[in-house]
Amino acid sequence: MKRNIVLLGAPGSGKGTQAAFIAKEYGIPHISTGDIFRKNISEHTALGDLAKSYMDKGLLVPDEVVIGLVESRLKEADCANGYILDGFPRTIAQAEALEKVASLDVALNFYVPFDVIIERLSDRRVCVCGATYSAKMLNGETKCSKCGKEVFQRDDDKAETVKARLEVYSNQTEPLIGFYKSKGILSDITVSTIEGTFENVKKVLG
Ligand code: AMP
User: Fold this and answer.
1) DSSP 3-state assignment of 105?
2) Which of the 8 DSSP states describes residue 157?
3) Is the distance from the beta carbon of residue 8 to the nearest atom of ligand 1 less than 6 Å?
4) Where are the domains of the chain?
5) Pocket residue to mutate for ligand 1, from 37, 74, 158, most atoms within 8 A of Cβ
6) Phi, psi for 153 (deg, rounded to 5)
7) Backbone angles phi, psi at 62, to 5 degrees
8) Residue 176 near ligand 1, beta carbon < 6 Å
9) Contact between residue 104 and residue 25 where contact means Cβ atoms under 8 Å apart
10) pLDDT in tens, 148-192
11) 153, 138 in Cβ contact below 8 A?
12) What span, in angstroms and rounded, lies between the C-alpha atoms of 111 and 103?
């Protein structure tokens, strides 16, 4: 089984949802750098303050900050049998740093056209517990069905920031597709429904 996994795809391509499914099915941790930053922001840590100043503009947190964070996370005991990196690496420099500390088995690439992504992100609502919803599906419901807390729209899912995030994705993150292709570990995943996409993921992971 392929266990050290990187997920590639634009913001809103469904990586986070698939990561949660993979984590449950294969019993390996889901490491989302975005979630780590959001937790730090909610706890008002120095890392959170720093990350927020970039995230609010749709920009990437500097490589040296993110790389150190992931390197120490990968040393934790629960990563011994594999892990799913969701939202990292996002630059070639991050991917090169990761090569030095990890032996990756597979990079799953989720392609979703930008017009679909823009619609999805403007409709996305989240909860502090990590649950994700569609505003349309919530149909006026404001509480999380998993934990009962209030759901909300991420600041960086607002239209003006989404544009910046997609530009950052095209310029800085998309080149990773070629990077992992050249390493021979890239698998393109056909995106359909959440369940259908997960079936495609399982075919690759075995
Ligand atoms: P995400 O939840 O993955 O969409 O991440 C939200 C935001 O956190 C991004 O728009 C970046 O500002 C920041 N971020 C998350 N992961 C990284 C990363 N690997 N490198 C730089 N910034 C990141």
Assistant:
1) coil
2) G
3) no
4) 3-112+173-205
5) 37
6) -95, 130
7) -55, 145
8) no
9) no
10) 999 999 999 998 899 999 999 999 999 999 999 999 999 999 999
11) no
12) 24
Three-state DSSP at 156 gives helix
Q: Could you count the other beta carbons within 10 Å of the beta carbon of residue 98?
A: 20
At 19-56, the pLDDT tens digits run 999 999 999 999 999 999 999 999 999 999 999 999 99
Strand, coil or helix: what is 91?
Answer: coil
Structure tokens at 55: 């995230």
Is residue 87 in contact with ligand 1, taking CB distance under 6 Å? yes
pTM: 0.93
DSSP 145: T
Residue 87 has phi, psi (to 5 degrees) of 95, 5
Closest residue by Cα to residue 68 from 53, 50, 80: 50
Pull the structure tokens for residue 78: 């629960």
CATH 3.30.470.30 is right for the domain spanning 3-112+173-205: no
